[in-house]
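Data availability (excerpt). The following record was deposited with the supplementary files.
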Amino acid sequence: MASKSGDSKQGLIIALVFCVLIIIGLGVTAYYGFADQQRLTDEAKKAKADMQAIQKDRDANRYLNLLYRAYIGAPGDKLDELGELGATKGAYDANASKDKDKIDKVIAAIDQRLQGWDAAANKPKKTYNGELQALAAQLTARTGELDQLKTDAEGTKERYQQLLTTSEKEKKELADKLTQAGKKAETDLSKYLAQIQEQQKALDQLGQTLEAEKKKADQTVAGANTEVARYKKAIADLQANIERLQDQLPKFDIVEKDQPKGRIVSIDRSGSMPYIDLGSADNVKPQLTFTVYGVGPDGRALRQAKATVEVINVVSDHRSQARVTSVKDPNRDPLVPGDLLFNPAWSPSMQQHVAIIGVIDINGDLRGAPAETQMRALNEFKRSLESQGMVVDAYLDLKDLKMKGEMGRQTDFLILGDTPEQRLGDTKENDPKAERAVKMGALMTDMQKKAVANAVTVINVRKFLAVTGHKSRGADTEPTRGSLPRSTLSAPGK
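Predicted structure:
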């Protein structure tokens, strides 16, 4: 019994040992099996990554191949190849090749040479094949032109030989004609000498007639001198009356007779673009001008103007931007906030009324000009005043010398132009220009008398332009009171 029990245990132990060995063997086998599986998986991933890199390189190289073919002109109109350019461009852009920068520079140079890429057609605007074909066409054309030039040269050579042969013949004919012309000239000279003698006789008779006419003209001049003396006296009397009336008129002082219409509220650093406290609510419009005066210690305007400004932009109800059109001394007396704005011919609440008489010769170029030219200048002056809101009650029509409109107590200013000047040394008897000068002078005298009677301020046109803020042409500064050179309205925007 004891022997059987011992054998049983020994068999169990052996069985257990075999089981353990089998389990260990299975574990080892499973371990190495799983290890080989992981290795195969890693190798598959690496192979796939390598394949993708190869495909990217292939696509990048495919893009370059297609691009170069497009530049060369090989694809022609093959839309599949041109369309594939867009599909493969991303692969090329993502390519990290070390030569990519060099390739990009080459492509940029080719693109510039062929005048860029046509994005709509997805192809270059020009190709090398196209350029070669164009050059070949030009070469063919130039070759044809050269052949034509050779043909023309041969024809020219033949014509030259013909002309050379012809010229020898014409030379002989010309010599014969010269001989004949010389004989004819001798005959004609005899005839001309006879005609000169006859013309000399006629000239002597004309001199006698001229002497008689001179005596008659002397008598006419004597009569004209009498008429000139009459015109001179009439014009001198009218000029004296005009000067006497002007001396009797009160001198216009803008500071005394007008109130400031506004102020400068701010100004830019350059001192050329101020803002003023007048705007749309004050009936301000672009091109309105003002004379600028500084403020004294007593708060009143100084006696001397410092600048002129012109409104260029109405910003709000009580704000406008202006530009400086002239300044007397920008360094020692620049524009500053608080400076006062004057324009006696403009009011924010009512229209100013004016009358005009005389020749408005602002530029000094209308002396002796026709009446139509003088009238055009007056009409231009009228339009300029009306554009700034003024009403022209009356004016003298310089063509028919009749007053148009009526000057009354509602009129604020009578603007005096120049009196017509006549060169009396050239005046003839019953000269219409001299008579016109006399008549206009009489009308100007009567209008000044009427202005005094109706309390209308009489002002010279140049003084009027100065006090209303208009810049003098050809001058850097605006004239002060009592010293006014010839001036003119500045054109809008000038």
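Summary of structural features: Helices lie at 2-72, 79-94, 100-113, 128-248, 254-257, 371-387, 432-453, 461-467.
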